[in-house]
Every structure is written in C-alpha cells, then in structure tokens.
Amino acid sequence: MPPAAVLVDQEDVRRGVDGVLRATLDAERERLRDVSPDAETLADSLDAMLSGGKRLRAALCYWSWRAHGGDGEPGRSAALTVGAALELFQAAALFHDDVMDASATRRGLPAAHVVHTARHREHGWSGDAARYGESVAILLGDLALVLAGRALGRATAHLDRATTDLVRDLFDDMELAVTTGQFLDVHAQAVAWGADPAADEERARTVIRAKTARYSVEHPLLLGAALAGADAGALAAASSYGLPLGEAFQLRDDLLGVFGDPARTGKPAGDDLREGKRTVLVARALASASDDDRELVQSALGRADLTAGEVDGVRESLVRSGAVAAIESLIDELADGALASLESDALVEPGRAMLLALARGLVERDA
C-alpha cells in the first residue's frame, strides 16, 4: 500500500489545496503590506508553517466528498477549498500549541515563537524577547483562524443554504471541540499525575478525542460528506469510524513522539518526554511498570535537559513495562473496528478505496 503522503497526490488533491493556500497567502501578504511593511513578516511565518503540511486532513475531506457521491465542478473546488480551510485551522492550532508546550521545533524547523524571539534579539529591540516571540506566535494563530474562516466562506459561497449551514455548523463544532480539548490538555498537565493511572489514561484519551481525533479525522470526513449532500445517517456512519480512527492516529503520534526517527518526524527524539506530555503511553507505563521503572519515568517526564542517553533509558522502561505493546494493541483495536465500519458503509468508488487506503496510512505511518 502506498504511504498516505503519496495517496494525497491522487486526483491532484495536494496541488489543488496548495493552489488555494498560495492564492490565500498572496492576497493576505498584499493586505498586510498595505497596512505596514513590518506586518509582512506574518505572511512569511504563515508560509513557512503551511509549506510543511502533509495535507492529510484536506485529503480526507476530498475523498469523503468523492466517496459520498461528489464529482465534477463546482463541488471539487468547494471540497479543495474546505480542505485548505482545514489546513489553515491546523496551522492556527500548531502556532498556539507550540507556545503552550514551549516546543522548540515544528516540522524540522524552529517554531514560530522561537523564530520571532531570535529576530527580536538580533535587532536589539526593547522589551522581553521571549514574550515578543510568544505574542507574535499567538497572533499568527489568530490570523490563521481568520483566513480559515475566509476560505470556508469562499467554499460555501455557491452552495445551497442547507448545505452551507451544515458545513459551517460542522466547522464550528470542530473549532469548539479543539479549543475545549486544548484546555483539557493544559489542565491535565497541571493536575495530580501518577497516583491513579486508570484516571490518568481516561483523562488522556478524553484529550485525544476532543483535541485531535475530531479535527484530524472525524470532521474532515464529515465536512466532505456534507459537501456531497450526505444525509444524517451517512454523517453518523462517518463519525462511527472517523472518531476511533482519529484516536488511533494520535496514539501513533504519541509513540512517534518518543520512539520516532527525528529525520522523519521533524522533532528531536524524546521531545514529548522533555515537554512532559501526559499521554496514554505514559499512563499505561505507570500502571504496569516495576517500582524502579515507574520512578525513572516519573522523574524524567518534563525534564527539558534530558540527554539522549537518558531518553534511551526511559524508552527501555516503557518497553519493559509492556506499555508500548499495549498501545500498539489499542491502535489495532481502534483501527480494525473503524476499518470494518468503513468497509461496510455504503460508499462509492474510487472514494471508498481511497478512504480505506488513507485510513490505513494514518495508523501505519512512521512520521
């Protein structure tokens, strides 16, 4: 099976979405320059963030549209433009997430707040450089949200009222879920951790469902289906496999955050450990590890100065505890159930086959 990144190129989906994003950024760059030449740096940062995306969310939206009977124009342009809106929404989430997690890198490059902190220092500007960089990154996230809304408006401009209302309601629901999930993630980092691994795991899975699963998989599928005129039953079916697939997608991400190859993931090895992310993987380890391994994991979590050797030691503890094998089993369980539901859904070709291939790629990826 081709990797998901290759599947995104089918029917020129990537090129079509990239074209919408390029037109959006070019227009925004001109508007920003008209306000002030100083503001053009915002367009540069948006361009950098968007240039590295896999376009998986956009592809899921497009192929859901196709699988639910979508074909030809103007539907294709609408599906691609909603896909671009999803990419802009993801960019907004990443700008904000990197500030909240104090992440140094994003997609193998310095995160936006790091870039603008360095720019402040290089120019010798007044005030706190780090605060300046974080402020710019927050505003970049806000700007990406504005552009996502504009793209959604363009996508629905020529649709009938019922479809337009449904698409906008779904997009609003997605934004609310992600914002709530982000708060729950921040909250989970602050509350007591380790005394009740079962409660810790449930909290981590709640964050996954709200923050990642919905906007990464479920809502792109729902938006594509809605654009094709799917009824309530078809939308419910898409949710039935979209949400578990989204959870499996994030669980794979959690494994890659500890065990992934930096050359493939674009983040330093063990970065999730240094950031102290309270994942299902860690909760499973604390529930089943030996006393020594539990102490090692707890003492390492959130230590920004972890060395490569110490990261290796934590990795070995996670494997010994059985947590890695347990997460792989959970991914398989979620993915198998979702794929069975997807295969039994009344979808049309070639969309059905492409959704199945993309779904497998989401959980079998190495980056």
Automatic annotation (TrEMBL):
Keyword Cell division included in the entry's annotation: no
Family statement drawn from the similarity comment of this UniProt entry: Belongs to the FPP/GGPP synthase family.
Source organism of the structure: Luteimicrobium xylanilyticum
GO biological process, one term: isoprenoid biosynthetic process
Gene: idsA
Organism lineage string: Bacteria, Bacillati, Actinomycetota, Actinomycetes, Micrococcales
SUPFAM superfamilies: Terpenoid synthases (SSF48576)
MF (Gene Ontology): (2E,6E)-farnesyl diphosphate synthase activity; dimethylallyltranstransferase activity; geranylgeranyl diphosphate synthase activity; metal ion binding
Name the UniProt record assigns to this protein: Dimethylallyltranstransferase
Gene3D superfamilies, sorted: Farnesyl Diphosphate Synthase (1.10.600.10)
PROSITE patterns: POLYPRENYL_SYNTHASE_2
Assigned EC number: 2.5.1.1, 2.5.1.10, 2.5.1.29
Keyword Mitochondrion part of the UniProt annotation: no
Pfam name, any one: polyprenyl_synt
Keywords: Magnesium, Metal-binding, Transferase
